[in-house]
Amino acid sequence: MGIIIIGILFFIFGFVTWLNATLIPYLKIACELQHEWQSYLVTFAFYIAYFVMALPSSWVLRKTGYKNGMMLGLLVMAVGALLFIPAAMTRTYGLFLLGLFIMGTGLSVLQTASNPYVIELGAPESAAQRVSIMGICNKVAGAISPLILGSIMLKNIDALEASLKTMDPIQKAAELDLLASKSIVPYIVIMVSLVVLALFVRFSPLPQIEDPEEEEGSIQHGGKSSIFSFPHLWIGIVTLFLYVGVEVIAIDTVIGYAKSLNMNMEAARVFPTFGMIAMIVGYIIGIIAIPKYITQERALAYCAVLGVILGICTAVLPANVSIWCLTLLSLANSLMWPAIFPLAIFGLGRHTKTGSALLIMAIAGGALLPMLYGSLTTCMGFQGAYWMVLPCYLFILYFAVAGHRVGIKHLYNK
Question: Where are the transmembrane segments (predicted)?
Fold first, then answer.
């Protein structure tokens, strides 16, 4: 029963996180945004919450416990969803962004609380398998959510965009108000679902788990007294920042890129789902192949090389091929989190908790890199701006090949 509840929570993570791919083009039209970078404030508001809340989340969970912390996270997310109602009624972009930030805040608490259960609810030797199953729950939800929200909020959007150009200001405002109102019912449903799930978690048979104290001493950290004594961790933080950034770019910019190619919205809005399917395929490959056939380091290196190749193809090939290369970048991204995180915290000993919190803060890459992409489109075009992913994947490749061993190479030679 416990693992089913956690699976539902991971499904919620994915569903809420990848709604942003639909919200970006929707809010650009409904709120009359003038610049591409403004629309990517959606991802900024959502992902910057991880940076802000990574350390406070640990403090909150020490006060509430993990089970109550999960309930709290769900209720905070519900408050964020509730804000979409006044935001839609007034077409106030700032309120939409505040709602997204609050949802991201709740999600950061929820993730921090629920992840330990994946380890605890079962035998330690099968923990990796459970982590992969949770990842699939997350990505399946991510594949479904753009289809559901897109069918409601982006329905007939092409015809509306064309007609807006010929309307007088009063007619235009009325049509945009109607468009904005389409988000009210979906987010009421999301809010109610989150509250119901919070109550379900509160009264569920999930056991209370303790927050284990790290060892005061560990042969792994070799007597190092400071978190700054582990250069591989800091390289890993940069790597995770870049990975999350390119993962979000691959999913959340694809609709805008498709629209720039004069593709209609009905066709464009399904590309995020294709990207999530590619990630699911990658997870399944990882479950089968790691560590039986390849190590996590080698898997990360292969994914980084694939990212380099597909990134170049996205930037230079004809548009009808390029957009599929962009979509397939999600396959390259699929095994990166499961590999980067353990490699970055390897050997930290009593500094593991601090290192983990710093890595969670690196999720801010999903806030900043899409903003950079949006800014680059003004001078490089939608396709040319994808050159920015190339140095990101090259750095990830460096971490996979050598960076994860910097400062602790002796531990790998034991």
Answer: 7-27, 39-61, 68-87, 93-110, 131-154, 184-201, 233-258, 270-290, 299-317, 323-348, 355-373, 385-408
Do residues 370 and 245 lie in contact, with contact meaning Cβ atoms separated by under 8 Å?
A: yes
* Rounded (10°) angle between helices 66-82 and 2-17: 30
Q: How many CA atoms lie within 13 A of 397 on its CB side?
A: 15
Distance CA 303, CA 393 (A): 9
CA distances in angstroms from 96 to 82, 114, 228, listed in the order given: 10, 26, 38
Query: What per-residue confidence (pLDDT) applies to 214?
Result: 44
Contact (Cβ atoms closer than 8 angstroms) between residue 346 and residue 404: yes
Quickly list H helices, 154-230. 157-164, 169-181, 184-202
Chain-centre distance for alpha carbon 374: 18
Biggest CA–CA distance in the chain, Å, is 74
pLDDT (0 to 100) of residue 251 = 95
Q: Alpha-carbon distance 309 to 329, whole Å? A: 9
Q: How far apart are alpha carbons 41 and 37 in whole angstroms? A: 7
Nearby residues of 285 by Cβ (< 8 Å), 6 or more positions away: 334, 335
Instruction: Report CA-CA distances (Å) from 133 to 4, 142, 248, 356.
Output: 11, 14, 21, 21
Q: In the predicted model, is pLDDT for residue 156 greater than 70?
A: yes
Average pLDDT of the residues in 50-78: 87
User: Residue 221's pLDDT is what?
Assistant: 47
Decide if pLDDT at 119 tops 70. Answer: no
Is residue 347 a contact partner of residue 220, using CB atoms and an 8 Å limit?
yes
Residue 57 in contact with residue 108, Cβ under 8 Å? yes
Neighbouring CB atoms inside 10 A of 386's CB total 29
Residue 294 falls in which region: left (phi positive, over 0), alpha (psi -120 to 50) or beta? beta
Gap between the Cα atoms of 152 and 203, Å rounded: 33
Instruction: Give residue 1's pLDDT band: very low, low, confident or very high (50, 70, 90).
Output: low
Q: Check if the beta carbon of residue 17 is closer than 8 Å to that of residue 139.
A: no
2 has pLDDT over 80: no
Tokens of 390: 């190339």
**Are 366 and 337 spatial neighbours (Cβ–Cβ below 8 Å)?**
no
- Other Cβ atoms less than 10 A from the Cβ of 210: the count is 9
Burial pattern 273-293, b for ≥16 Cβ within 10 A else e, equals bbbbbbbbebbebbbeebeee
What number of H helices and E strands is found in the chain? 22, 0
Amino acid at 182: K
